[in-house]
Amino acid sequence: MSTRIHTCTGCDEFQAWSRRQFLEQAKSSVAAAVAAPVWLPRIVLAEGEDSDRDTLIVVFLRGGMDGLTAVVPYGDPNLYAPGLRPNLAVQPPDALNGAVDLDGFFGLAPAMGPLLPAFQSGQLAVVHATGSPDPTRSHFDAFNYMEYGIPEQPLTIFTGWLARHLQSVPPMSANGLRAVAIADVVPKTLAGAPGAVPVVDPPTYDFPGKAATAVLRRDAIEQGFIDAGGPLASVAADTLATIDLLKTIDFANYVPAPGALYPNTFFGTSLRSLAAIIKAEIGLEAGMVELSGWDTHNQQGVFQGAMANLMDNLSRSIAALHMDLQNQMDRVTVVVMSEFGRRADENGSIGTDHGHGNCMMVMGGHVDGGKVFADWTSGELLHPDLLYQGDSLQVTIDYRDIVSEILQKRLNNSDFASVFPNFTPKFQGIVT
């Protein structure tokens, strides 16, 4: 076991990234001078547009989630080797605070238990020993390679993989809004996407400033940017159109489906808002939500504490979304991913350091769920001789394999060369 001591929950790099994001958000607020959603009448899709596609929801867990805790490979005896994870290893299902069994080899951490019904329904699948094959253990670099879709390649592309998907397929509706990120700024995954907007709080998204002068200020924007033409004309027009569109959805009076209980957290309410937008049937093609805080270098808190709280928030929110969208699940696919996993061994601060392989989750009406997809060599991928660089879980399934299969089978897009350049996917049979 490592004896490295850490004095912060997140490493300096992750904290610096968070500060940088805050500054970017502050600067972007000037350009994004707009706001958000309310309960909307159905929009008629334009003739000839492609509506036969799922809405894709991407959930990004920033900080590097510990997949060996979230989805426990309790069937691998090496997980319980002396000194590896004496405080953090979740025990097998028959033990006190043991894992919630999935298939006799893998189980959910107790705090992830709310996901069991979705798994048992056959609409939730787990992919383990997966992720980006890029060897970096830098949060910032890992974000770039994963979100731009170019692991192990020169950083010469600065549009997101999901943005390039949207660029390469026709829109699902004529209203101009194609993707929503519940965030202050558009994440790198959606960088360069047509019709993509960041919305921090959909229920309060509206034209900023005092209502008494809103008409005058809007006229000024239309005359100064739209009527005058130039590079910002389309941006201004799309922004105002998005405000008008989202204002027609009554978020305040939105009632989730019976049994769907979203946590009263930013992540939970963000998924609730996305559910409302999807049910409004305005042709939304993609939504993105982030949950940060997974950089658990010290006092990880598997059963009580930081990570337990994160897993509880994640699992209850995803479970509520699954319940809420049961009538829409046939046209929805949800992907949950993180930039990398954690090391197999715990450190001296009862936390885990930056690793490599991780787990993903995929949920939807056409997911071959109730399964854990994994290439767990001989049942002992955690054997010291098989660990990546001697300390971490391998990536045996490239995350692009999973996403590419979803793109082709659920989003009608086989243009992998545009979405993931220099990559040939190997489908895993995770969606139909």
Q: Care to describe what's here?
A:
This protein is an alpha/beta fold and 432 residues long. It has one domain: Alkaline Phosphatase, subunit A, CATH 3.40.720. It has 11 helices and 12 strands. Strands 1, 5, 6, 7, 8, 9, 10, 11 and 12 form a 9-stranded mixed sheet that branches. The protein has a 3-stranded antiparallel sheet with strand order 2-4-3. Helix 6 packs antiparallel against helix 7 and helix 8 packs parallel to helix 9. The longest helix has 20 residues. It is globular. The N terminus is likely disordered.
Question: In DSSP terms, counting alpha (H) and pi (I) runs of 4 or more, how many helices?
Answer: 11
Share of β-strand residues: 5-15%
Q: Structurally, how many domains make up the residues?
A: 1
Biggest sheet layout: 9 strands, mixed
CATH topology: Alkaline Phosphatase, subunit A
Name of the CATH class: Alpha Beta
CATH architecture: 3-Layer(aba) Sandwich
> Which H/E pattern describes the elements?
HEHEEEHEHHEEHHHEHEEEEHH
> Could you tell me the number of beta strands?
12
Overall 3D shape: globular
Helix content: 25-40%
Radius of gyration: 22 Å
- State the low-pLDDT regions, or none: 1-8, 22-50
N→C terminal distance: 43 Å
Structural class comes to alpha/beta
Overall pLDDT score: 89
